[in-house]
Amino acid sequence: MKAARAQEMSGRDPGEPHSPAALEAVRLTKRYRGTWALRDCTLSVPAGRVVALVGPNGAGKSTLLHLVAGLIAPTRGGIRIFGEPVGQRAAALARVAFLAQDKPLYGGFTVAETLRFGRHLNPGWDDALARQRLAELDIPLNRKVGKLSGGQRAQLALTLAVAKRPDLLVMDEPLANLDPVARHDVMRSLMAAVAETGMTVVMSSHVVSDLTDACDWLVVLNGGHVQISGEVDELLAAHRMLTGPAELADGIAARIPVIGDSRSGRQAVLLARTGPGTPSHDPRWRVSGVSLEELVLAYLRHPDATVLPRPALTAT
Amino acid sequence: MIKFRLDPGSGVATYLQLVHQVKHALRLGELMPGDQLPTIKEVVGDLAINPNTVAKAYRELEREGLVAGRPGQGTFVQLSLRGGSTADHARFRRDLAQWVRACRAAGLGQGDMEALFASVLADSSQQEIA
Amino acid sequence: MLWLTWRQHRMQVLLTTALLAVLGVALLISALGTAEFAARNAPVAGCMPYTPPCSTFTIAMNERIRPLGELLGWLPLLAPAMIGAFWGAPLLAREFEHGTHRLAWTQSVTRRRWLAAKIVGLGAAVALGGLALSGMVGPWLAAFDVPPFDVDRIDLRWFRLVGIVPAAWWLSAFVLGMAMGALLRRTLPAMAATLAVCALAFFGLLHAPPSYAAPQRAVQTKVMEDPAPEDSLFVNAYWIDRNGTTFTHEQVTLALTGPCGTDGTEETAKTYATCSFSHGYRQVAEFHPADRFWQFQWTEAAILLVPALALGGVAVRRTLRPRI
User: Fold this and answer.
1) Between chains, do B51 and A191 touch, taking CB under 8 Å as contact?
2) pTM surpassing 0.90?
3) Domains: count for chain A
4) Would you say B66 and B77 are in contact if contact means Cβ atoms under 8 Å apart?
5) What angle (nearest 5°) sits at the alpha carbon of residue A26, between those of residues A20 and A27?
6) Residue to test with chain C: of A64, A66, A110, A117, most C Cβ within 10 A
7) Residues A250 and A217 occupy one common structural domain
8) Closest-CA distance of chain A to residue C230, Å
9) Which CATH code, of 3.40.50.300, 3.20.20.10, 1.10.10.10, 3.80.10.10, is assigned to B14-77?
10) What digits encode the pLDDT tens for the residues A234-270?
11) Residues A66, A117: one domain?
12) By C-alpha distance, which of C240, C245, C244, C235 is closest to C285?
């Protein structure tokens, strides 16, 4: 059964061009008492992706995720999830699961009662999946939630969200406040759940390295704006680190977009958007690939540089 | 069954690391035709990586004809990359072990041996091309 | 959904039920004992007040009703305050405080349904609790209502323990607590505010029932023991002279000091009253007849429930609006 699901996975095309986007925001704006948390965010994420939402603290990540989960309403603009507007309708609520940063659970409930909570409040509840996950994680059903460790709490909260069988799972800093072992364990079981269910996942973090291998779509929020939205592999393929003589750096910058530029004495290290494929280049420049972390940092330091969604990126 | 591991500092794309590890196991005979590769869920549940990455690696291996997906069952090895017979392998291994002992006796370290082997390998492949 | 409400609030429900049950048993024992006592000791009909057989019986009955009566006297203040603070205030405040509203609101149930299950489910339980209290106190009081001992439901001592008024107090305190929790979003401040408002309402309305309607007025035409009819709610008594001018009791006493002597002991009371009458004074009593009981009950229920439900409506609207 498991193998069958995995097989379906390997055969499916993650970016089917005609299916509606898993998540689509149009000119999304949220204002709190005079301060803009989000301004004109336009965003489209295809189905089946695991999306990393990164950005500095206060960039509007939580606001965006709360808007997607329908916990707050936008000041302007709108969001659609699989083509349906977000709202207080049971059918719309059933498609999205949300895991808040502090992983709220009822501390007085036992683990079994927490599952019962999920079953009573979700028509699509997959009890077998929930019990199997908890058995794999060695979380006893009769334990009080308040007595679980931080990692077990996070796993239970994740189980509750996954067993709802959502089409879109939204997680706000799922790894914050967890020790390294728990972070890895949560990520492993999340990825296994994604492999099993094929759901789309959007998760935020301010630590890029947490999400590097898990995510295949990157969204960078900076100061309430969307700075990058695109497929991780394409983004990495389109950027190169160029190391060479400092006196030639300005010449490079004049020809191709340079996002990161650090110079020490006679040497310059440039992070440039070279576009897909290996660029033809001057032999005095050494060309190397960039890591996701380098890419994100370079863009965050230059809020004016953007890689915004293009139709070519969403329909692979 | 093969167990994958990742080298985060290698700079090699994750899916390519998986492809290389399968090929390596095929060469060493750790994987033989008919063997099953771990399911995508098993791999991601172990490595905490994106399922699409594993799917991409398996698709690449399928494209090269090394493995094939059987619907409802999993992904199975089709071809072996191992050259020569098992008897040949055993003989070459014995010879190589003898060579290593001789090097050690002559005072060569591991790095020296690796460099020597790589250089001879490169020379011989150049001669073949020529 | 009702399972969730029950699971989250079963402590309150069970504790309240247990307390009501204990009270019920105490009332039952007391009522049975009193019924038996009254059957054996009640004087035959038509016994004169203040005669020894009558007094003995009324004193004994009074002794019997006193312990539980004093205990019950605290309930109109304590019960709604506790219901408001422990049933109402944590209902939403605790969810906001622990962030579990984010958990509940992202399940496949609309916020409206979630809130309805909580408020309607627990509100019904609270109203039932209030009705259960009056349902137990009513028959208990009836066991004491054996002439010449007199128990009036309209008497302020019992008014808030019978009929629908306990349910109205409990329910409005519950809604008040819920609203405080929704507006303050923190359990302890919501509990404190609820307790404060409950106490304020209790002391504000403590002596209010007599003013729920204009009292009836009875002018005494002959010397009698009590100017207000039996079973009625006494409001006020004063004197008038032939011109209709009103006097207080003291003014009359002062004016009659010469002609009638002093209004002292019991034996002279009648003579004194006859003397006052002969000088043209008439005693007037203001009272509410016993049949205004239900009118007063509904009036007090409305005074409590209308503002409580209005505040509750505001709180519900704020909770349903997608905010933080």
Assistant:
1) yes
2) no
3) 2
4) yes
5) 170
6) A117
7) no
8) 55
9) 1.10.10.10
10) 898 889 888 888 888 888 888 888 888 888 888 889 8
11) yes
12) C235
